[in-house]
C-alpha cells in the first residue's frame, strides 16, 4: 500500500496512517511515518497525532516516546493542546509521570481535556492523591471539571477510601453538571461502595431507572467487598430477575463471593452458570473457579478444572498449589510446584509462600527448609515477613521449637508479633516454659498494650500452674483497662 502512494501528498499518507491505526497495526504507522520523513513530506498535526497514538499501542520504549516528543517540539507543535494531550497520554502509557507532568507544565494553554488527561493518568496509575490535587488545581485555574473529571476523581476517592471527599465530589456533580450519565452514576456508586457507605450506594442505585450491567456489578462487588455476602447473592438474583445479562466482571465478583462464603452448593450453581453462558474461555475466570472450589472444600473439582485447562498462567499454578496446601495435600502441592518449573514458569514470592504453607500443613520440614533455601539462593527472591512466619509455623508444628527460636533470632528483619505468638503457642503446647518466657518478653516489647498478648500470657501461666501470676496479669488488664477486642467468629453450612 505504501508503494502505491509514494508520489502522493501528505493528505493521502495521513489517510493511510489512519487506516493502519484503525486496523490495529501501529508498527506500520511508525514505518509509514519514517517513510514520510525520508521523502520530505509535510508533517502536520494529524500525522503526529496518529504517530503518538501508535507509540502508545506499539509500546516501543520511553526512549522512542522521547524521540517522537522531540520531533513535536522541533516541528513547532508545542503550543497545540491536542498534540500535547496526546504526548502526555503517550508517556502515561509507560508510567512516566515525570515526563507527563513536564509536558503538562510546559503547555501554555490548558483546556479541560488536557487537565482530564493528567488527572486520569494519576487516578488510573494508582496515584490517587495526586489525582485529587490535580482536580483542585484545575478549579484554581478556573477550568471547570466535567463528567470525565468527576469519574477520575471518584476512582481516586475509591483508592484512598476518602468518603468525605467523595461526598463533596457528588455534591459538586449535582450542583454543576446537567444530569448524570450512566458512566458517572456507576462511578459514584462504586465510590460509595468501596468507601463502605453502602446506604448511599444503594440510594443512588435506586434512583437510576435504566441500569446497565456495570450498575448492577458495582453494587454486587460493593456488597462482596464489605463482607455483605448474602446481600451480594440476593442482588445477583435480582439482576437475573430483571433479565440483565451478567458479564465476566459480574461473574468474577460472584465467584469471589462464593469463595468467601465457602458455600459449595452456591459455588456449583455459579460454576454451571459460567459454563452455560460461555465464560470458561477466560483464563482469569477459570483461575478464579479453581480458587473458589478449593475454598468451598471441593479440591477434586478444582483439580479437574486445572487439568482441563488448555492454557495455564502463573496464577493458575498458584491457585492450584494454594488449594492443595489449604487441604493439607503437601506432597501433591510439591509435585505441582516441580511440574510448574519444568513447564518453564518461574516461581514468584506468592508461589513460594503457598509451597511453604503446603509444607507447613503437611509437616514436611525438610522439604520446606529446602524450598526456603532455594527461594533465596537459587531464585534470588527476598522473603516477605509471611515467608519467615510460615517457616516458624512449620518448625513449630514438627516439634522443633528451639530451631524455630534460633531461626527467628537469625532473621535479617525484625520479627513481627504474629511470629512470636506462633512460637509462644507452640512452646505452650510442648512444655517449653523457658523459651515461651523469652518470647513473651519480646512480644510485650513490640505490643505492650495488645489485649491478645495478655490473654496469651495468662493462658501460658495457667498451663504451668502459676496461678498467682495469672491473677496478676488479669489485675494488670483491669488496672490499665485493656479489654479483649475483635472476638472471633465462625460459620457452618447446614443441610
Order of helices and strands: HHHHHHHHHHHHHHHHHHHHHHHHHHHH
Mean pLDDT: 87
Total helical segments: 28
**Gap between N and C termini, in Å?**
68 Å
Class of secondary structure makeup: mainly alpha
Instruction: Give the overall shape, derived from the CA principal axes.
Output: globular
CATH architecture of the domain at 384-485: Alpha Horseshoe
Q: What is the CATH class of the domain at 384-485? A: Mainly Alpha
As a whole number of angstroms, the C-alpha radius of gyration is: 29 Å
CATH H level, superfamily name of the domain at 384-485: Tetratricopeptide repeat domain
Q: What fraction of the residues are assigned to beta strands by DSSP?
A: under 5%
Low-confidence parts lasting 5 or more residues at pLDDT below 50? 1-7
Number of strands: 0
Largest sheet, in brief, is: none
What share of residues is helical?
over 70%
Here the CATH topology of the domain at 384-485 equals Serine Threonine Protein Phosphatase 5, Tetratricopeptide repeat
Describe what you observe in this structure.
With 495 residues, the chain is mostly helical. It has a domain of 102 residues: Serine Threonine Protein Phosphatase 5, Tetratricopeptide repeat, CATH 1.25.40.10. The protein is built from 28 helices and no strands. Helix 11 runs antiparallel to helix 12, helix 13 runs parallel beside helix 15 and helix 24 packs antiparallel against helix 25. This is LOW QUALITY PROTEIN: putative pentatricopeptide repeat-containing protein At3g05240. Keywords: Repeat.
